[in-house]
Amino acid sequence: MSANSNPSVRVEGFIITDKLGTGSYASVYKAYDKVSNKEVAVKCIDKREVTKNQADSIIREIQILKMLEHPYVAKMIDFFWDDRYVYIVLEYCNGGDLSMFIKEKRRIPEMVCKKFMIQLVEGLKYLRSKDIYHYDLKPQNILINRGSELALKISDFGLSLFAHKNLENDIAGVGPRGSPSYMAPEVLNCDNYDPSLIDLWSLGVILYECLHGKLPLPQRTVAGLVEAIRKCTPIKIDSRLSMDSKNLLRQLLSYDPKGRITFEQLLKHPFIELDYTPPTEDTYTNAIRAARDAVRSDYEKDYHGAFNKYCHALKYMVPFVTKEIAGASKSKEEGVEDEEKTEETLTQPVVDDLDEASSVAGKRKHVHLTGEQVGLLKTMAKPTPKMYDGLDVGYSAQMYLCEGKYREAIDKFMLALSLLIPVLRKEPCGKRRELLTIQVKEWLDQAESIKTLLKANDELQQLDTNSPHRPSSEDEENNMAYDFCRII
C-alpha cells in the first residue's frame, strides 16, 4: 500500500490525506469529511480510463452497495461525480486488507482463522439474502477494521452478480470472472457451472492461505494453474490442523463442483457452526432448551445422551461467554468500586502512582474505541513519543491476544500500561485524554482477564496432575484461545 501525503486529486467536501491503493482505472484515498471530520475512504474512478464493460461494473457496484448494510460488508456512505471522476465514499477500515495481514503473520493461528471464517460466512449469508454472488473473493478484497475487535469487511463488488433464473445466460458470454488464483476450476476452464458454488471455492483458497501462508496451487502462470487443475493436483494440507479445519478445506477445495460443500451445509459445518455463533435471544432460548433436555437425560440415567446434549447446550452458550469477556460486562454486576480494586491489583507492580489513573479510567462504564477512534488516537499521539510507543506496544499485545499467545500478550500489555498510565496522569483535558482514557481502561480490563485466565489454567493443570488424561500444552493453548478468541 502506497502512501502519498500530497495527492493531486481534489474532492469537494473532503480533505484528502493518503493514497491507499491504485487499480487500472481507479485510486483509493484516505480522507476526512470537512463537516463531520469523519475518516472515510474515497474511491476515485477516472471516467477517461473506463471501458464500456468497466462502466457497467461501476454502475452495478454502486447499485449493489446502496442495498448493503452489515457489520462484515464494507459500507458505502455516498457517491457522486464530476466531469472527470466518479467518487464512491466508503467507510474507512484502519487495518488494511487480509492479504497484508497474511503477509505480516505468514500463518494465522487456527482459532483466529475460525473467527475470520465465521465473519466471512456471516457476510456471505447476508449477501445471499440479497440474492448477490460476489465472484471476486480474495484477501485483497477483504478489509480489516481494528477496533475493540478485528472485523473483516467484504468489499469490491465490481464483478458481483444478482442471483436470478437467467443468471446462467448473463454469464455465458462473459468469460471467466475474478482473479485466477482464487477462481473456481469450472470458471477457469470456462465450463458450465453452478453460480452458487463459485464463492465457496474462493473461500476455501482464502482459508487455506490464512492457515498455510501460501496458496493451495502456487503456480506462477494462468496456464500452469489450468494444467494443475486439469491434473487434479493433490492439495497438501498441514497434518497439524484440527480435523474440522482439514475436513472443511477438503470440502471447499473440491475440483469437482458436485463434490463441493453447499452453502447450506457450510453453515452447519463443525468449523463454522453459524447456528450457534450469533449471541441472540433465539440462540439463548435454544441453549436453555438443550440444557433442560440434558438434565432430563441425566436424571433418567441416560448418561451418553446427557453428555451429547450438554455439549450441544455449551455450543450455544460459548458466544454469550466470549461476548461478555469482550465487553468486560462484569462492571455491570460488580460495580465500579470492585472494578477499580481489580485494576489496581493488576497494575500496582507497574507504576506506583496508579490511584489517580485507575480512578480516571475506572469511573467510566465499559466503552471501546471504534476503528475510526483508534486511527484518530494514533494520529494525535505522534507528537508525544511515550504515548505513541505505548499505543504501539498495546496494539502488538492485542495481536498476541488474537493469536492465543497469552503470556506474551500480558507482558506487552504491562509494558504498554507502564508507558501510558504516567502519560495519562499528566495529560490535560481534551479529546486526546478522553480517547487515551478509554484505551487504557480497555487494556486494563483485557490484561486482568488474561491474568485471571492464566491463573485458572495453572490451577487446572495442578488439579489434572493425577487424572488419566492431562491435556497437552497445545490443547490448553487452543482451549484458552477458544475462550478468548473474541476478546479483541
UniProtKB/TrEMBL annotation:
Transmembrane segments: none annotated. InterPro entries: Atg1-like (IPR045269), Kinase-like_dom_sf (IPR011009), MIT_dom (IPR007330), MIT_dom_sf (IPR036181), Prot_kinase_dom (IPR000719), Protein_kinase_ATP_BS (IPR017441), Ser/Thr_kinase_AS (IPR008271). GO terms for biological process: autophagosome assembly; autophagy of mitochondrion; piecemeal microautophagy of the nucleus; regulation of autophagy; response to starvation; reticulophagy. It is an enzyme of class 2 (transferase). Pfam families: MIT, Pkinase. Keywords: ATP-binding, Autophagy, Cytoplasm, Kinase, Nucleotide-binding, Repeat, Serine/threonine-protein kinase, Transferase. SUPFAM superfamilies: MIT domain, Protein kinase-like (PK-like). Its EC number is 2.7.11.1. Belongs to the protein kinase superfamily. This is Serine/threonine-protein kinase ULK3.
